User: What shape does this take?
Amino acid sequence: SLFITDECINCDVCEPECPNGAISQGAEIYEIDPDLCTECVGHFDTPQCVEVCPVDCIPKDPDNEETHDQLYAKYETLMAAG
Ligand code: SF4
Ligand code: SF4
Assistant: This one.
């Protein structure tokens, strides 16, 4: 999954763009739930939050590295769960 660094300025433009509802406002900055983030695999060719973030503070999470196949499997699980 991706994660949001402390460069986040709490602008709120990413949250409504996430097709998986993975982004929410945390105590200090916005946060991504790694269980819900598919890096937009299954929905879009590029991560939508990265596309809109004005300060480029959403990199890949080195603690949650996933292959395309793993991300697609997560997408299918999320879709099946509705
Ligand atoms: Fe949501 Fe896609 Fe960003 Fe992950 S990469 S948080 S799924 S918009
Ligand atoms: Fe933070 Fe970027 Fe999301 Fe704005 S778009 S809330 S700066 S992560």
About this structure: Helices lie at 48-52, 68-81. Residues 4, 8-14, 30, 52-53, 55, 57-58 surround iron/sulfur cluster (ligand 2) (CB under 6 Å).
